[in-house]
Specification:
This protein has about 300 residues and is α/β, with parallel strands linked by helices. The chain has ten helices and 14 strands. The chain has helices at about 5-20, 20-30, 30-45, 60-85, 100-110, 115-120, 170-175, 230-235, 245-255, 285-295; strands at about 50-55, 60, 95-100, 125-130, 145, 155-160, 165-170, 190-195, 205-210, 215, 220-225, 240-245, 260, 270-275. The chain has a five-stranded mixed β-sheet. The longest helix is centred in the first third of the chain and has 24 residues, at about 60-85.
C-alpha cells in the first residue's frame, strides 16, 4: 500500500469518528479542503461513495460503514504495536493524549502540570476537554478522567480524588422574594438551569438521595447548555438554580456569590479516576503520567 493510500484511509476513519470534516481535519493537522480532496480521491479509487454529506452533517454510507468496521481493528492494532515500542525507552518521551471533563482538568490536572513537566520534560500532553461520555479507545486517546461510577469495568483505573458531591445552587438575588426548596419536589416551583450531553443529546438528570432511596426530579428548565462554565455563569447572574459538582462552586459559595440548598439530599459518589485500557505493554510516557498522578494525589 502506498503512503498516499494509507493517508486517505486514515482521513476517512477520522471523518467517520468525528462526524465532522473540520474536527477531523484539526485532528490530522490538515486543512478541511485537503481532507475533502483526500476523501474524494479515495472514493474514486474504490469506485464507491463512502460518505453522505450535507451542509450540517456527514455520515458513512453502508459501504463506508462496512469499510470502517474492517479498518478500525487493523489500525488500532498497528497503532498499539508502534506505541508499545515506547515501553522500552529508558527516558519516557512522546505524547500522552488525555480526555477529561472541564471540571476535572481544572481540579486535578492543571495543578500538577508544572511539576510533571519538570519531572518528564520529554513527555508532551495533548489534553482534550470533553464533558460528554466519550469512548476514549475508539477516539484514539491514551487515557481519560471520569467519575469512578462512569468507568467501564474492563478499564484499569487510578483514583485521583476523594468522593464527590453535587450541589444545587442559586444566587442571593435569585432567592430574594422566593422561598428556598426544602425537598426535591419543591424544584417544580423554581427556575432551573440544565445540562445536555453533547453526544447523546440527553439531559443530565437531577438525582437525589432520600430516606426511601433515589429520587429523580424532572425540573422545568429556563436554559439548557452543554458547558458547565455557562451553567455556573447563569446561576451567578441570578437566572435560576444549577446542579453542579460541589468542588466547582465552592469558591462562589465561600464568597457568598451563591447559596446552596437541598444539601442533605446530595450524597457523595465516586470521585475522579484516571482510566486507561489494560495492555501487556504500556508506552513509557503513559506509564510515567499514570505513576505521577497516582503518587501526587
Amino acid at each position: 500500500m502506498r503512503g498516499a493510500d494509507f493517508a486517505e484511509l486514515m482521513g476517512f476513519m477520522a471523518v467517520v469518528e468525528e462526524r465532522n470534516f473540520r474536527r477531523a481535519a484539526q485532528r490530522l493537522a490538515l486543512s478541511p479542503s485537503a481532507l475533502s480532496h483526500s476523501i474524494r480521491s479515495l472514493e474514486q479509487r474504490l469506485g464507491a461513495r463512502l460518505l453522505n454529506r450535507t451542509t450540517r452533517s456527514v455520515a458513512p454510507t453502508a459501504a463506508g460503514q462496512a469499510l470502517y468496521e474492517r479498518l478500525r481493528p487493523a489500525i488500532l492494532e498497528m497503532d498499539g504495536a508502534v506505541r508499545d515500542v515506547g515501553a522500552f525507552q529508558v527516558q519516557p518521551s512522546g505524547v500522552v493524549r488525555l480526555n477529561t471533563p472541564r471540571i476535572a482538568a481544572g481540579m486535578v490536572v492543571l495543578p500538577k502540570l508544572v511539576d510533571f513537566r519538570t519531572a518528564y520534560p520529554s513527555v508532551r500532553l495533548d489534553l482534550v476537554i470533553d464533558d460528554s461520555m466519550t469512548d476514549v479507545v475508539a477516539k484514539g486517546f491514551d487515557a481519560g478522567i471520569r467519575s469512578g461510577t462512569l468507568v467501564q469495568q474492563d478499564m484499569a483505573a487510578v483514583r485521583l480524588t476523594p468522593d464527590l458531591r453535587m450541589a444545587v445552587v442559586g444566587s442571593p438575588g435569585y432567592f430574594a422574594g422566593r422561598p428556598s426548596p426544602k425537598v426535591p419536589d419543591d424544584l417544580q416551583y423554581h427556575v432551573c438551569l440544565t445540562y445536555r450531553w453533547r453526544e447523546t443529546g440527553a439531559m443530565y438528570r437531577w438525582r437525589f438521595d432520600g430516606p426511601d432511596g433515589v429520587i429523580e426530579v424532572n425540573v422545568e428548565n429556563a436554559l439548557t447548555v452543554n458547558d458547565s462554565d455557562l451553567l455556573l455563569g447563569a446561576a451567578l447572574r441570578g437566572l435560576g438554580l444549577a446542579f453542579l459538582p460541589e468542588s466547582f462552586v465552592e469558591e462562589a459559595l465561600a464568597h457568598g456569590e451563591l447559596v446552596r440548598v437541598l444539601d442533605e439530599w446530595c450524597r457523595p459518589f465516586s470521585g475522579f479516576h484516571l482510566y486507561y485500557p489494560r495492555k501487556p505493554h504500556m508506552p513509557a510516557a503513559l506509564r510515567a503520567f499514570i505513576d505521577f498522578m497516582r503518587l501526587s494525589r
